[in-house]
Write a structure and sequence with these properties.
asparaginase activity, hydrolase, 14 strands, alpha/beta, Asparaginase_C, binds asparagine, Rossmann fold, about 375 residues, transmembrane helix, L-asparaginase_N, globular, eight-stranded mixed β-sheet
Length: about 375
Protein backbone atom coordinates (compact mmCIF):
# COMPACT_ATOMS: atom_id res chain seq x y z
CA UNK A 1 0.00 0.00 0.00
CA UNK A 2 2.79 2.36 1.07
CA UNK A 3 4.74 1.33 -1.99
CA UNK A 4 1.69 2.02 -4.26
CA UNK A 5 1.20 5.50 -2.74
CA UNK A 6 4.86 6.27 -3.26
CA UNK A 7 4.58 5.30 -6.95
CA UNK A 8 1.47 7.48 -7.38
CA UNK A 9 3.20 10.43 -5.69
CA UNK A 10 6.24 9.92 -7.92
CA UNK A 11 4.05 9.78 -11.04
CA UNK A 12 2.18 12.96 -10.05
CA UNK A 13 5.54 14.63 -9.29
CA UNK A 14 7.00 13.67 -12.66
CA UNK A 15 3.87 14.77 -14.53
CA UNK A 16 3.94 18.11 -12.71
CA UNK A 17 7.61 18.51 -13.61
CA UNK A 18 6.86 17.79 -17.27
CA UNK A 19 3.99 20.31 -17.28
CA UNK A 20 6.18 22.97 -15.61
CA UNK A 21 9.00 22.34 -18.11
CA UNK A 22 6.60 22.51 -21.08
CA UNK A 23 5.15 25.73 -19.70
CA UNK A 24 8.61 27.22 -19.21
CA UNK A 25 9.60 26.34 -22.80
CA UNK A 26 6.37 27.86 -24.14
CA UNK A 27 6.69 30.99 -22.06
CA UNK A 28 10.35 31.31 -22.95
CA UNK A 29 9.40 30.97 -26.63
CA UNK A 30 6.91 33.81 -26.51
CA UNK A 31 8.85 36.07 -24.22
CA UNK A 32 12.06 35.71 -26.20
CA UNK A 33 10.61 37.77 -29.03
CA UNK A 34 8.28 39.81 -26.91
CA UNK A 35 11.11 40.67 -24.56
CA UNK A 36 13.04 42.37 -27.36
CA UNK A 37 13.69 46.08 -27.34
CA UNK A 38 10.35 46.67 -29.01
CA UNK A 39 7.10 46.69 -27.20
CA UNK A 40 4.84 43.99 -28.69
CA UNK A 41 2.17 46.65 -29.12
CA UNK A 42 4.42 48.27 -31.76
CA UNK A 43 3.60 45.36 -34.05
CA UNK A 44 0.34 45.32 -35.99
CA UNK A 45 -0.14 41.74 -34.87
CA UNK A 46 2.20 39.48 -32.96
CA UNK A 47 2.77 35.74 -33.18
CA UNK A 48 5.84 34.52 -31.32
CA UNK A 49 6.43 31.79 -33.94
CA UNK A 50 6.90 34.34 -36.73
CA UNK A 51 10.06 36.36 -37.46
CA UNK A 52 10.22 40.08 -36.66
CA UNK A 53 10.64 42.29 -39.74
CA UNK A 54 10.96 46.08 -39.58
CA UNK A 55 9.66 48.22 -42.43
CA UNK A 56 11.42 51.57 -42.96
CA UNK A 57 9.31 53.90 -45.10
CA UNK A 58 10.74 56.78 -47.14
CA UNK A 59 7.82 57.71 -49.42
CA UNK A 60 7.42 57.34 -53.19
CA UNK A 61 4.50 56.17 -55.29
CA UNK A 62 3.88 53.18 -53.01
CA UNK A 63 2.72 55.80 -50.46
CA UNK A 64 0.98 57.97 -53.07
CA UNK A 65 -2.70 58.58 -53.77
CA UNK A 66 -4.50 59.91 -56.84
CA UNK A 67 -7.96 61.33 -57.32
CA UNK A 68 -9.20 58.39 -59.39
CA UNK A 69 -8.43 54.73 -59.94
CA UNK A 70 -7.01 55.40 -63.39
CA UNK A 71 -4.75 58.24 -62.31
CA UNK A 72 -1.24 56.83 -62.64
CA UNK A 73 0.91 59.86 -63.32
CA UNK A 74 -0.75 62.82 -61.62
CA UNK A 75 -0.95 61.76 -57.96
CA UNK A 76 0.22 62.98 -54.59
CA UNK A 77 3.44 61.35 -53.47
CA UNK A 78 3.87 60.61 -49.79
CA UNK A 79 0.18 60.91 -48.90
CA UNK A 80 0.16 57.68 -46.84
CA UNK A 81 2.14 56.94 -43.70
CA UNK A 82 3.87 53.65 -43.01
CA UNK A 83 1.08 52.35 -40.75
CA UNK A 84 -1.39 52.84 -43.58
CA UNK A 85 0.81 50.77 -45.91
CA UNK A 86 0.99 47.99 -43.32
CA UNK A 87 -2.72 48.06 -42.49
CA UNK A 88 -3.60 47.79 -46.19
CA UNK A 89 -2.03 44.30 -46.31
CA UNK A 90 -3.54 42.19 -43.47
CA UNK A 91 -1.83 39.10 -44.99
CA UNK A 92 1.45 40.42 -43.55
CA UNK A 93 0.26 39.02 -40.21
CA UNK A 94 0.67 35.47 -41.58
CA UNK A 95 4.25 36.09 -42.65
CA UNK A 96 5.99 38.18 -40.01
CA UNK A 97 5.56 40.48 -37.05
CA UNK A 98 5.94 43.79 -38.85
CA UNK A 99 6.72 47.12 -37.27
CA UNK A 100 6.85 50.37 -39.24
CA UNK A 101 9.40 53.18 -38.93
CA UNK A 102 8.78 56.34 -40.93
CA UNK A 103 12.10 57.73 -42.09
CA UNK A 104 10.69 60.30 -44.53
CA UNK A 105 7.74 60.64 -46.88
CA UNK A 106 9.13 62.14 -50.09
CA UNK A 107 9.51 61.39 -53.77
CA UNK A 108 12.77 59.57 -54.35
CA UNK A 109 14.16 62.51 -56.39
CA UNK A 110 14.35 64.34 -53.03
CA UNK A 111 16.43 61.73 -51.20
CA UNK A 112 19.93 63.02 -50.34
CA UNK A 113 23.12 61.50 -48.97
CA UNK A 114 22.43 62.76 -45.46
CA UNK A 115 19.14 60.81 -45.44
CA UNK A 116 20.93 57.74 -46.80
CA UNK A 117 23.55 57.87 -44.06
CA UNK A 118 20.93 58.20 -41.33
CA UNK A 119 18.77 55.40 -42.73
CA UNK A 120 21.74 53.08 -43.14
CA UNK A 121 22.69 53.67 -39.51
CA UNK A 122 19.08 53.06 -38.40
CA UNK A 123 18.79 49.83 -40.39
CA UNK A 124 22.19 48.62 -39.16
CA UNK A 125 21.08 49.10 -35.55
CA UNK A 126 17.94 47.11 -36.32
CA UNK A 127 19.89 44.29 -37.97
CA UNK A 128 22.24 44.13 -34.98
CA UNK A 129 19.22 43.50 -32.76
CA UNK A 130 18.97 39.73 -32.12
CA UNK A 131 15.18 39.98 -32.10
CA UNK A 132 15.03 41.31 -35.68
CA UNK A 133 15.20 38.78 -38.52
CA UNK A 134 15.13 41.15 -41.50
CA UNK A 135 14.36 44.64 -42.78
CA UNK A 136 12.42 46.15 -45.66
CA UNK A 137 12.52 49.72 -46.91
CA UNK A 138 9.84 51.27 -49.07
CA UNK A 139 11.07 53.89 -51.53
CA UNK A 140 10.17 55.77 -54.70
CA UNK A 141 11.29 53.80 -57.73
CA UNK A 142 13.03 56.66 -59.58
CA UNK A 143 16.19 56.51 -57.46
CA UNK A 144 15.54 53.19 -55.72
CA UNK A 145 18.64 51.66 -57.29
CA UNK A 146 20.92 54.32 -55.79
CA UNK A 147 19.55 53.90 -52.27
CA UNK A 148 19.55 50.09 -52.55
CA UNK A 149 23.18 50.10 -53.73
CA UNK A 150 24.18 52.53 -50.97
CA UNK A 151 22.60 50.21 -48.38
CA UNK A 152 24.29 47.20 -50.00
CA UNK A 153 27.69 48.86 -49.62
CA UNK A 154 27.21 50.19 -46.10
CA UNK A 155 25.18 47.57 -44.22
CA UNK A 156 26.91 44.55 -42.78
CA UNK A 157 24.76 41.63 -41.76
CA UNK A 158 23.75 38.18 -42.93
CA UNK A 159 20.13 39.17 -42.43
CA UNK A 160 18.07 40.09 -45.49
CA UNK A 161 17.36 43.72 -46.38
CA UNK A 162 14.78 44.25 -49.11
CA UNK A 163 14.06 47.41 -51.12
CA UNK A 164 10.54 47.80 -52.48
CA UNK A 165 8.41 50.38 -54.27
CA UNK A 166 5.48 50.59 -56.63
CA UNK A 167 4.87 51.88 -60.12
CA UNK A 168 1.21 52.65 -59.42
CA UNK A 169 -0.14 54.72 -56.53
CA UNK A 170 -2.13 53.01 -53.78
CA UNK A 171 -5.44 54.30 -55.20
CA UNK A 172 -4.87 52.92 -58.73
CA UNK A 173 -6.88 50.02 -60.12
CA UNK A 174 -4.45 47.08 -59.85
CA UNK A 175 -2.05 48.97 -57.59
CA UNK A 176 1.18 46.97 -57.38
CA UNK A 177 2.32 48.31 -53.99
CA UNK A 178 0.42 45.94 -51.64
CA UNK A 179 1.62 42.76 -53.40
CA UNK A 180 5.16 44.14 -53.72
CA UNK A 181 5.16 44.90 -49.98
CA UNK A 182 3.88 41.43 -49.11
CA UNK A 183 6.55 39.74 -51.25
CA UNK A 184 9.24 42.05 -49.82
CA UNK A 185 8.30 41.12 -46.25
CA UNK A 186 8.08 37.43 -47.20
CA UNK A 187 11.61 37.70 -48.58
CA UNK A 188 12.95 39.49 -45.51
CA UNK A 189 11.35 36.81 -43.30
CA UNK A 190 12.77 33.87 -45.29
CA UNK A 191 15.90 32.11 -44.08
CA UNK A 192 16.93 31.27 -47.68
CA UNK A 193 17.34 35.02 -48.21
CA UNK A 194 20.25 35.31 -45.76
CA UNK A 195 23.78 36.24 -46.96
CA UNK A 196 22.66 37.75 -50.25
CA UNK A 197 23.11 41.45 -49.50
CA UNK A 198 20.41 44.01 -50.24
CA UNK A 199 17.74 42.83 -52.70
CA UNK A 200 14.88 44.41 -54.60
CA UNK A 201 11.40 42.84 -54.61
CA UNK A 202 9.45 44.26 -57.54
CA UNK A 203 6.82 42.73 -59.78
CA UNK A 204 7.23 39.12 -58.50
CA UNK A 205 10.98 39.15 -59.03
CA UNK A 206 14.02 39.27 -56.76
CA UNK A 207 17.00 41.32 -57.94
CA UNK A 208 20.43 42.17 -56.50
CA UNK A 209 20.85 45.81 -55.46
CA UNK A 210 24.14 46.00 -57.35
CA UNK A 211 22.64 45.14 -60.71
CA UNK A 212 18.89 45.82 -60.80
CA UNK A 213 17.77 49.12 -62.35
CA UNK A 214 14.64 50.95 -63.34
CA UNK A 215 14.47 50.50 -67.11
CA UNK A 216 11.05 52.03 -67.82
CA UNK A 217 9.55 55.26 -66.47
CA UNK A 218 5.95 54.03 -66.31
CA UNK A 219 5.36 50.31 -66.72
CA UNK A 220 4.82 47.88 -63.84
CA UNK A 221 7.63 45.59 -65.08
CA UNK A 222 10.11 48.47 -64.87
CA UNK A 223 12.96 46.78 -62.97
CA UNK A 224 15.51 44.55 -64.64
CA UNK A 225 19.07 43.36 -64.34
CA UNK A 226 19.76 43.33 -68.07
CA UNK A 227 23.13 41.57 -68.07
CA UNK A 228 23.26 39.70 -64.76
CA UNK A 229 19.63 38.60 -64.44
CA UNK A 230 17.45 38.10 -61.41
CA UNK A 231 18.31 36.20 -58.23
CA UNK A 232 14.92 34.52 -58.11
CA UNK A 233 11.17 34.91 -58.32
CA UNK A 234 8.14 34.71 -56.06
CA UNK A 235 5.77 31.78 -56.51
CA UNK A 236 2.62 33.23 -55.04
CA UNK A 237 4.50 35.05 -52.32
CA UNK A 238 7.15 32.41 -51.56
CA UNK A 239 10.67 33.42 -52.62
CA UNK A 240 12.37 30.85 -54.87
CA UNK A 241 16.06 31.42 -55.58
CA UNK A 242 17.91 30.23 -58.68
CA UNK A 243 21.28 29.85 -56.92
CA UNK A 244 22.73 29.49 -53.41
CA UNK A 245 23.68 32.68 -51.52
CA UNK A 246 26.59 34.68 -52.99
CA UNK A 247 27.88 38.25 -53.04
CA UNK A 248 28.96 39.78 -56.36
CA UNK A 249 32.68 40.01 -57.18
CA UNK A 250 33.88 43.52 -56.44
CA UNK A 251 31.56 43.93 -53.48
CA UNK A 252 33.18 45.98 -50.78
CA UNK A 253 31.84 47.09 -47.43
CA UNK A 254 32.14 50.75 -46.39
CA UNK A 255 31.80 51.27 -42.66
CA UNK A 256 29.98 54.56 -42.10
CA UNK A 257 29.07 53.94 -38.48
CA UNK A 258 31.86 56.00 -36.95
CA UNK A 259 33.18 58.61 -39.35
CA UNK A 260 29.86 60.24 -40.19
CA UNK A 261 27.60 62.23 -37.98
CA UNK A 262 23.88 62.32 -38.70
CA UNK A 263 24.21 65.93 -39.95
CA UNK A 264 26.91 65.26 -42.48
CA UNK A 265 26.49 64.75 -46.22
CA UNK A 266 28.83 62.71 -48.38
CA UNK A 267 31.45 64.39 -50.61
CA UNK A 268 29.96 66.08 -53.66
CA UNK A 269 30.16 64.01 -56.84
CA UNK A 270 28.44 65.18 -60.03
CA UNK A 271 27.38 63.21 -63.11
CA UNK A 272 27.74 64.69 -66.60
CA UNK A 273 26.25 63.17 -69.72
CA UNK A 274 28.36 62.38 -72.78
CA UNK A 275 27.13 63.27 -76.28
CA UNK A 276 28.41 64.50 -79.65
CA UNK A 277 29.95 67.99 -79.26
CA UNK A 278 30.11 67.69 -75.45
CA UNK A 279 30.86 71.11 -73.91
CA UNK A 280 33.89 70.67 -71.59
CA UNK A 281 33.28 73.86 -69.61
CA UNK A 282 30.46 72.03 -67.80
CA UNK A 283 33.24 70.11 -66.02
CA UNK A 284 34.92 73.38 -65.05
CA UNK A 285 31.63 74.61 -63.59
CA UNK A 286 31.21 71.40 -61.59
CA UNK A 287 34.77 71.73 -60.23
CA UNK A 288 34.22 75.42 -59.39
CA UNK A 289 31.01 74.49 -57.54
CA UNK A 290 32.94 72.17 -55.24
CA UNK A 291 32.72 68.72 -56.83
CA UNK A 292 35.31 66.32 -55.44
CA UNK A 293 34.59 63.83 -58.18
CA UNK A 294 32.84 63.80 -61.56
CA UNK A 295 31.34 60.77 -63.28
CA UNK A 296 30.96 60.98 -67.02
CA UNK A 297 28.16 58.93 -68.56
CA UNK A 298 30.19 58.51 -71.73
CA UNK A 299 29.19 57.06 -75.07
CA UNK A 300 29.59 53.28 -75.51
CA UNK A 301 32.70 52.20 -73.60
CA UNK A 302 32.87 55.66 -71.96
CA UNK A 303 33.99 57.74 -74.95
CA UNK A 304 33.76 61.49 -75.34
CA UNK A 305 35.23 64.11 -77.70
CA UNK A 306 39.05 63.98 -77.61
CA UNK A 307 39.53 67.76 -77.33
CA UNK A 308 37.11 67.91 -74.39
CA UNK A 309 38.94 65.00 -72.78
CA UNK A 310 42.31 66.77 -72.93
CA UNK A 311 40.88 70.00 -71.56
CA UNK A 312 39.14 68.19 -68.67
CA UNK A 313 42.30 66.19 -67.85
CA UNK A 314 44.19 69.47 -67.36
CA UNK A 315 41.51 70.86 -65.03
CA UNK A 316 41.30 67.60 -63.08
CA UNK A 317 45.08 67.51 -62.69
CA UNK A 318 45.16 71.09 -61.36
CA UNK A 319 42.25 70.65 -58.95
CA UNK A 320 42.76 67.06 -57.76
CA UNK A 321 39.18 66.16 -58.68
CA UNK A 322 38.73 62.50 -59.62
CA UNK A 323 37.17 61.89 -63.04
CA UNK A 324 35.37 58.56 -63.47
CA UNK A 325 34.11 57.19 -66.76
CA UNK A 326 30.97 55.13 -67.08
CA UNK A 327 28.62 54.45 -69.97
CA UNK A 328 25.34 55.95 -71.01
CA UNK A 329 24.48 52.54 -72.52
CA UNK A 330 22.12 50.33 -70.52
CA UNK A 331 24.87 47.87 -69.61
CA UNK A 332 28.52 47.06 -70.28
CA UNK A 333 31.99 47.39 -68.81
CA UNK A 334 34.10 50.57 -68.84
CA UNK A 335 37.84 50.38 -68.22
CA UNK A 336 40.45 53.17 -68.22
CA UNK A 337 40.96 53.32 -72.01
CA UNK A 338 38.65 56.28 -72.60
CA UNK A 339 40.30 58.29 -69.82
CA UNK A 340 39.80 58.82 -66.09
CA UNK A 341 39.07 55.80 -63.92
CA UNK A 342 36.64 53.35 -65.49
CA UNK A 343 33.53 52.54 -63.41
CA UNK A 344 33.67 48.85 -64.44
CA UNK A 345 30.17 47.38 -64.54
CA UNK A 346 28.64 50.20 -62.51
CA UNK A 347 26.25 52.59 -64.23
CA UNK A 348 26.83 56.34 -63.69
CA UNK A 349 24.48 56.66 -60.70
CA UNK A 350 25.98 53.67 -58.86
CA UNK A 351 29.49 54.80 -59.79
CA UNK A 352 28.69 58.14 -58.14
CA UNK A 353 27.46 56.44 -54.94
CA UNK A 354 30.55 54.23 -54.67
CA UNK A 355 32.92 57.14 -55.41
CA UNK A 356 31.24 59.21 -52.68
CA UNK A 357 31.89 56.39 -50.21
CA UNK A 358 35.49 55.99 -51.42
CA UNK A 359 36.12 59.73 -50.96
CA UNK A 360 34.48 59.69 -47.53
CA UNK A 361 36.76 56.80 -46.57
CA UNK A 362 39.76 58.90 -47.68
CA UNK A 363 40.95 56.49 -50.38
CA UNK A 364 43.71 57.63 -52.74
CA UNK A 365 43.21 57.73 -56.53
CA UNK A 366 45.15 54.47 -56.79
CA UNK A 367 42.93 52.81 -54.15
CA UNK A 368 39.78 54.11 -55.85
CA UNK A 369 40.90 52.53 -59.13
CA UNK A 370 41.40 49.20 -57.32
CA UNK A 371 37.88 49.35 -55.84
CA UNK A 372 36.29 49.89 -59.26
CA UNK A 373 38.50 47.72 -61.44
CA UNK A 374 38.81 44.62 -59.31
CA UNK A 375 40.22 41.58 -61.05
CA UNK A 376 41.62 43.54 -64.03
N1 LIG B 1 7.12 55.00 -58.92
C1 LIG B 1 7.67 55.90 -58.13
O1 LIG B 1 7.85 55.65 -56.95
C2 LIG B 1 8.11 57.18 -58.77
C3 LIG B 1 8.19 58.36 -57.87
N2 LIG B 1 8.32 59.55 -58.65
C4 LIG B 1 9.37 58.30 -56.91
O2 LIG B 1 10.43 57.86 -57.26
O3 LIG B 1 9.25 58.75 -55.80
Amino acid sequence: MLHGTRIIIMLIGSATLVVICAWLVAVQGTTQLARGPHDVSAFRCFDSRLPNVTIFATGGTIAGTGSSGKDMSNYQIGALGVQHLIDAVPELCNVANVRGVEVSNVGSHNINSNMLVRMSQQIQRELDDPYTQGAVFTHGTDTLEETAFFMDLTLQSSKPVVAVGAMRPATAISADGPMNLLTAVSLAADHDAWDRGVMLAMNDRIGAARFTSKTNANRVDAFMAVEQGYLGVFENTKPIFFYPPARPLGHRHFDISSQLTAQKSLPKVEILYGYQELEPSLFKSAIDLGAKGIVLAGAGGGWWPTAARQQVDAWAEASGVIIMTSSRSLSGYVDDSSGGIGCGFLDPQRCRVQLQLCLEAGLSRHEVRKVFQFGV
